[in-house]
Specification:
alpha+beta, 26% helix, 2 domains, 4 helices, single chain, 5-stranded mixed sheet, 2,3-Dihydroxybiphenyl 1,2-Dioxygenase, domain 1
Length: 138
Amino acid sequence: MPSKMIFINLPVADLGRSKNFYEAIGWKVNQDFTDENAACIVIDDNICAMLLTRDFFTTFSKRPIADTVTTVGGAFALSLASAREVDILTEAALAAGATEELNEDRRAEEAQVGMFGRTFIDPDGHQWEPFWMDYPGN
């Protein structure tokens, strides 16, 4: 196992629907860490999203779960290898039921510094921001 990994714990309303969504955009389910309460979605070798039923999620914190359908609770930026990969992932997410959040002012700012990004909202309201950045060595 790598020395560092990140696991993003996300509460979901319908575990089956959420697993299907993430599989549809090309991410894999790790069955070793998946049961009726949770599903481990492998985004990359060192990045996983843990989809947790809302009831199970409440065992991780005493604070109320944010209503991510009406408010933003976090923005998960994911660096990809090209602008084309950003488009491919976002288009797959939209085809699987995500909605796109457009921000033309932000796109103009990103273009000035050599970035390209898009934003999609998954069926549970979680905000994903795939992006590509033109930096030395890229």
